[in-house]
Amino acid sequence: MKVLLLGATGNLGSRLVPALLAHKHSVVIFVRSESKLKSLVDSAAISRCTVVNGDATNSRAIQDTITHHQCNALVNSAGLAAIFPWQAPTMQGIINAVATAAVEASKKLGYPIRCWFLGGLTVLDFPGRPGTKEHGLTFDCLSSKSQHLQWSLLAPSAMKPASKEITLLDTPRGNPLAAQNDTMAEFSPSFMTKMPYVGPYADIAKSMTRYNTSLEDCADFMAADLAKGDSEHVGHRVGIIESSQRKTQ
After folding, report:
1. d(CA 36, CA 8)
2. Residue 24 and residue 2 in contact, taking contact as beta carbons nearer than 8 Å
3. Of 67, 127, 159, 241, whose Cβ has the fewest other Cβ atoms within 10 Å?
């Protein structure tokens, strides 16, 4: 696919560059600072991409980039979510701009744009869960555009780098992730869930570290899903976990 990538100077976005290339996608990078991109990602990987300078809040510029380069997919990892409930949402300008651009570009090009967006674990369904306001707003925004947008919302817990080096890959690295739509993957509620008030919070907190993943695994997961074409994750929040079956192999 021809993929427009936003957020390529971030922790996940920079690792999406080699992951997308390894899965034989054509990559158009939409980035505010090309110099920062070059300081993070191997020049051999960047040389195989088309780089467009722009701001991720500029919906018209994103739309024009999609249509000019005839992209049929998009991955957005730009923006940072507010962690605490009392923080004002800051990334919704980016989400709205990118989603709107994809919808309008789709209408002009005459085909749907396949999109991956980045959310967080607490956007998933869980009885009594403590939701993160900003990830919930992202889900609401994407849901409102489902008629025109083939979106998926990745919902990881903490992501850490497997390596500090971000280099071109000869072949896909693969990943050990198991995925489940709309709920926490491979999650079994414990007795704590039934405890009044604090039970659901405690149950999630107890399980959080099980859902930690690597940035490289998440990047490969999305790149591999785009390579499949038809995906079971379209229109869903996607919970991921390192598969217990693969851990025992």
Report:
1. 9
2. no
3. 127
Residue 230 makes CB contacts below 8 A (sequence gap 6+) with none
Residues 60/101, Cβ–Cβ less than 8 Å: yes
Burial of 85 (0-12, 13-18, 19+ CB in 10 A): exposed
pTM of the model: 0.87
Q: Which H or E element spans position 218?
A: helix 215-228
Band (pLDDT 50/70/90 cuts) for residue 182 is very high
Around Cβ 100, how many Cβ atoms within 10 Å? 18
* CA dihedral sign, ordered 155, 134, 207, 15: positive
204 pLDDT higher than 80: no
- Measured CA to CA, the distance from residue 39 to residue 244 in angstroms comes to 36
Interior/surface letters 133-149, b for 16+ CB within 10 angstroms, e for the rest: bbbebbbebbeebeeeb
